[in-house]
Design a protein that fits this description.
Layout (H helix, E strand, L loop, with lengths): L6 E5 L10 H13 L5 E8 L3 H4 L1 H5 L4 E6 L6 H7 L6 H6 L2 H12 L5 E5 L14 E5 L4 H11 L3 H22 L4 E4 L2 H11 L4 E3 L21 E5 L5 H21 L4 E5 L5 H8 L4 E5 L5 H5 L3 E4 L9 H9 L3 E3 L16 E2 L3 H13 L1 H18 L2 H26 L1
Parallel strand pairs: 1-2, 1-4, 2-3, 4-5, 5-6, 6-7, 8-9, 8-11, 9-10, 11-12, 12-13
């Protein structure tokens, strides 16, 4: 007689494929590691048209069963502006769509799930008031902190006031919903400590940032061709737009002054037309838009930059670049939450002059470039394979299930 595996329902607010954003990559790697393990996995997410058929093979690597609700089209700007006046933060309001609410309720009404995971805190808006199962929230950031950082960086007083309002709303929402989960998963100990201090959470655990080391294979930094700097990231995310803008305005002119033949490649979906137009006037700058595979672009560069000034969580792109052998230059915030050693695994710089100097040093000193490349890859190999993160996530889910079952027995 075989023992039935506990059933896990994983609720994602986005369709995971293609893996064109850090959150999608992290979630996909965790689910790949969970597949075939302690749980029977059902993934519930929005899907448009033929997406489930087109990505059937990829879906098979992350779940035993896939269920979908109809994906809606992007909301018009006037509707998103109207959401600014509501009680919920804008990204939370965007996820609370009737088809999504109905799909989660229908899945839970059928019963049979032992544990339910909601991916990203804003997806918790889909969680019913009562769930007859253990519940876990997989947080990828401290969302309220992101809004606070936008408010600090905003030069326009009206934008700053808008971000402060969103920060207050997210603080209320994030604190209230996270306290209602059996367990909360954070992606760094720093984030976990923020949740404990800001919201009084006790049931919060941490998983490491994981990287697929086979997919992101190492290559020595190239020494031929034009000196190249690369940035990767979804260019429809405010933190990335701000970081690239900052790099183009304040850092890139200093790099070009020191190395006129240098070029800068921005890899990521949906770059804002205004930013692309601005970059067209700058020598050596290009935007690729969406690409199927970032690896050729990273392997084609000698320096990977993370010039972020706002954001939260951990940047999986940093570990991917390190795994591929492309030395990283980052702000403190860009590398936040990652247990890496400055000088050995990456170079850190927070002001424009220091950032440009670090980029130029790597472009002009192949020996240091190669040293950091080898050191970073060895560090990631030793500690951050994606299986390590998935195993930690599975242990947390099993613990949450045990806690919930114990509480249910005590209440009976």
């Amino acid at each position: 007689m075989t023992t039935r595996k506990p059933r896990l329902l994983f609720v994602s607010p986005v369709f995971l494929f293609p893996n064109d954003a850090g959150g999608k990559i992290r979630t996909t790697n965790v689910l790949k590691g969970l597949k075939g393990g302690a749980f029977e996995l059902t993934l519930l997410a929005p899907a448009a048209g033929e997406q489930p058929q087109v990505w059937a093979e990829a879906l098979g690597t992350v779940c035993d069963e896939f269920r979908a609700w109809p994906a809606g089209s992007s909301l018009p700007r006037w509707r998103r502006a109207a959401d600014l006046l509501g009680r919920l933060p804008v990204n939370v309001a965007a996820d609370r769509r009737p088809p999504a609410v109905a799909a989660v309720q229908a899945a839970l009404a059928r019963g049979g799930f032992d544990l339910v995971v909601f991916d990203f805190v804003h997806a918790a808006v889909l969680k019913p008031a009562r769930v007859d199962a253990a519940t876990v929230c997989f947080t990828h950031n401290v969302e309220a902190e992101i809004f606070a950082r936008h408010a600090q960086q905003a030069a326009n007083p009206l934008l700053a006031a808008m971000w402060r309002s969103q920060h207050r709303k997210m603080q209320r929402f994030e604190g209230a919903v996270l306290r209602d989960f059996t367990q909360v998963v954070a992606v760094s100990e720093r984030d976990a400590q923020q949740f404990r201090q800001a919201y009084g959470l006790q049931a919060v655990s941490t998983i490491p940032t994981g990287v697929d080391l086979d997919h992101f294979a190492w290559q020595a930094p190239r020494q031929d061709g034009l000196p190249t700097v690369v940035f990767t990231g979804s260019m429809d995310w405010e933190a990335n737009k701000d970081g690239v803008r900052h790099f183009l305005d304040d850092i890139w002119p200093r790099v070009k002054a020191g190395l006129p033949e240098a070029r800068f490649v921005v890899v990521g979906r949906n770059p804002p037309p205004a930013l692309v137009e601005r970059a067209a006037a700058l020598p050596g700058v290009s935007f690729t838009g969406f690409v199927d595979d970032v690896r050729p672009h990273v392997h084609g560069a000698q320096v990977f930059v993370i010039p972020l000034r706002v954001g939260g969580g951990t940047r999986i792109k940093a570990f991917e670049a390190m795994a591929m052998g492309c030395p990283v230059v980052s702000t403190t915030l860009g590398i936040e939450g990652l247990d890496v050693e400055e000088g050995a695994h990456y170079l850190r710089a927070d002001d424009a002059a220091a950032f440009a100097a670090a980029v130029l040093r790597l472009l002009q000193q192949p020996q240091q470039c190669a040293q950091i490349s080898r050191g970073a890859r060895g560090f990631v190999e030793a500690r951050f394979g994606h299986q390590v993160a998935a195993q930690a996530f599975e242990r947390i889910c099993l613990d949450a299930l045990q806690v919930w079952r114990g509480a249910a027995r005590a209440a009976a």
